[in-house]
Amino acid sequence: MVLRIGQRVPDFTLPDHMKQERKLSEFIQKGNVVIAFFPFAFSGTCDREMCTFRDSMTKLNSVRASVVGISVDSLFTLKVFAQTYSLEYTLLSDFNKKVSKAFDVLQSPWVAFGYIGVAKRSVFVLDSKGILRYRWITDVPSEEPPYDEIIESLRKLN
Q: What's the CA gap between 90 and 68, in Å, rounded?
C-alpha cells in the first residue's frame, strides 16, 4: 500500500529501544510527528541523519513536532545507538519489517550488500490527527533527507 498525502496513516505498534511497546497514536496525541526510517544504526549516513534530527530538536519543538526513528535493527542495537549519540527521541525496532512494508519503504535487495529487507531512508510528516502531510523517500542510502524542507512542512501545519 502506498501512503498518499492527505491520507490517515494506520496505527502500528513496535518495541522501542527501551523494550517498551509503543503505538504511533501515542506520539500523534502529542502533536505533529516526524517518522524517519533509516537503513542501519552505526552506518555513517544514518548516524549523521539521526544526529541532525537530535541537533534540530529546538526547531522541531517550536513547531510542536516529535521525532520517531525506525529501522530494522534490533532494539538492543538501537539502545546502544541512542546512548552512543545521546539521542533523546524514540527509536523503534521494525525487526520483523511489518511497518517498513506498510509504508512501502522496504528495499530488497539492499543496494550495497544484497541484504534482504532493509528500510529505505525516508521521512514522513504526520499532523496531530495522523494525516500524512509530507513524504520523502530515496533509493540512495547515502542521500540525507532535505531537513529544511521537513521543518518547512511542519511550520505549515501550525
A: 5
